[in-house]
Design a protein that fits this description.
With about 110 residues, the protein is mainly alpha-helical. It has a domain of about 80 residues. Helices cover about 65% and strands about 5% of the residues. The strands form 2 sheets. Strands 1-2 form a two-stranded antiparallel ribbon. Strands 3-4 form a two-stranded antiparallel ribbon. β3 and β4 form a beta hairpin. The longest helix has about 35 residues. It is elongated and about 60 Å long.
Length: about 110
């Protein structure tokens, strides 16, 4: 079964040979594109959080029983990256949820990198 080009849920409906779900078919093109962008943002944030989780697990599993200062720093760095990635994922969820509830895309605050 195909996935909706906008929200990625499974669908058998097509519009102009593009898979689209029942919820998205009634949306105007601008709304569809905003929704698709927010879903992509969430998907990318989720992938970053998963990668950060894997990196944290690798850092904690790779440390020998006698933790050295560099091992502690690796764990600290991985933890900080994991926390930041999870925060980004939460913000992406909130932006998508706000849009689905109100139809308005909340501005993303500038990241401090």
């Amino acid at each position: 079964m195909a996935r909706c080009a906008y929200c990625h849920i499974e669908t058998e409906l097509y519009e102009s040979q593009v898979p689209i779900c029942v919820k998205c078919v009634d949306d105007d093109p601008d709304t569809r594109h905003k929704k698709a962008a927010l879903f992509r943002e969430l998907e990318e944030a989720t992938k970053r959080a998963e990668a950060a989780t894997d990196a944290f697990a690798a850092a904690t599993n790779d440390i020998p029983s006698g933790i050295h200062p560099d091992g502690v720093q690796r764990i600290h760095n991985a933890s900080r990256e994991l926390s930041a990635a999870r925060d980004e994922m939460i913000k992406a969820h909130e932006r998508l949820n706000d849009f689905l509830k109100t139809g308005i895309v909340r501005e993303e605050s500038k990241r401090s990198d």
